[in-house]
Amino acid sequence: MRSGVNRSSIPVFGGLILIPSQDRLHYYPIDVSAGILKSTALALLERYPNLKLCGLAGTYEQALAQLPPAELGNRMVIFLGSTLGNLTDRERSSFLTQIQQALQPGEFFLLGVDLQKSIETIEAAYNDAQGVTAEFNLNILRHLNHRFGGDFALDRFEHLAFYNREQHQLEMHLRSLVTQTIAFANLNYRVKFEAGETIHTEISRKFHLPTLVDNLSAHAFKPLQFWTDPQDWFGLLLCQRQCTVGEYP
Question: CA-CA 20 to 30 A from 68: which of 120, 153, 227, 241?
């Protein structure tokens, strides 16, 4: 659903050349950035000039409410990457409910997920030697400085990533190296951090396939096909929306 043209979306659109009636295909990319939507549209239309495209600017929740009616024919919601794992249990259930409500029985949901793997493998990926994940995490402070007039000094925080066995999730934090007070000029607000105190910035759940299938089934989605990589680290599920009590196909 995110609109960027990248490694995850190109294979999907590559399949378009196999469909003879490309002029009947409609794509509705979703992104919070109107600029990203525009660049995505231009890139895709250059590759697939017959594609009908209309960008939806907003969050997933806002955009799902704007999806066109089912009269266009069978629709498919595509949610690639591993973003589902960044949601809490409540957020994930709410999101799947919104997908369920957006689709009619018989329509499709293509979902990408990050599968369970050894704790050592997970922690190594989020503590990479190149420091890519650490830089990504610290960039949150840069964003807060830019948007809210904060005075975070990035060298006074360190990246921390570990697997929380109790919650069955990878957690990312930013740990304060010293006792310090941060001021946000645009908010007229200050916050104090003790040395060793952390800011919890992200969670990343790794899914057990049978448990995920049960979760999808509870939201009226029947998995039809499952693909994975040779190491079984990542998965792609094609699901079909089923009828619930009181619904008719």
Answer: 227
